[in-house]
């Protein structure tokens, strides 16, 4: 199968479009995508694997988790842009956006709490 057909096939699934729309807005882990969409971990991982295999998303390690985001490159940009535009139409889009904001707020609070704790220990161990 040609590369173009594989990309179009990857973009042809509503769940993959939903995940693409989310990781296009923010770099997200599988767990965060679970919280946002309510989908199972294995289902999300399978879809992300197919998207990654077709050059639509990339991942990077952050501690124990992988964070996913879309790849915007010349060959795929037009198809990806069109698909992402269509991904804002399903009824899940509005609830996904609200859940995304909630998950990002929770992530920020968790990070702030962690750094406050670390800063306190750092002061006790290394302060004058």
From TrEMBL:
Name the record gives this protein: HTH arsR-type domain-containing protein
UniProt xrefs under PANTHER family: TRANSCRIPTIONAL REGULATOR, ARSR FAMILY, TRANSCRIPTIONAL REPRESSOR SDPR
Gene3D superfamilies linked to this entry: Winged helix-like DNA-binding domain superfamily/Winged helix DNA-binding domain
Cleaved signal peptide residues: none
Annotated HTH arsR-type domain residues: 1-91
PROSITE patterns referenced in this protein's UniProt entry, alphabetically: HTH_ARSR_2 (PS50987)
Keyword Transcription regulation among record annotations: yes
Cross-referenced CDD domains: HTH_ARSR (cd00090)
Membrane spanning residue stretches: none
Keywords: DNA-binding, Transcription, Transcription regulation
GO molecular function, one term: DNA-binding transcription factor activity
Alphabetized InterPro entries for the sequence: ArsR-like_HTH, HTH_ArsR_DNA-bd_dom, HTH_MetalResp_TranReg, WH-like_DNA-bd_sf, WH_DNA-bd_sf
């Amino acid at each position: 199968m040609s590369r173009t057909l594989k990309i179009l096939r990857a973009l042809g699934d509503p769940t993959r479009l939903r995940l693409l729309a989310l990781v296009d807005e923010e770099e997200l882990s599988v767990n965060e995508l679970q919280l946002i969409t309510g989908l199972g971990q294995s289902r999300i991982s399978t879809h992300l694997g197919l998207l990654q295999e077709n050059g639509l998303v990339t991942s990077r390690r952050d501690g124990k988790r992988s964070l996913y985001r879309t790849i915007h490159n010349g060959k795929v940009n037009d198809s990806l842009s069109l698909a992402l535009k269509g991904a804002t139409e399903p009824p899940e889009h509005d609830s996904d956006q609200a859940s995304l904001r909630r998950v990002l707020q929770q992530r920020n609070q968790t990070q702030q709490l962690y750094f406050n704790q670390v800063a306190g220990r750092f002061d006790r161990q290394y302060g004058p």
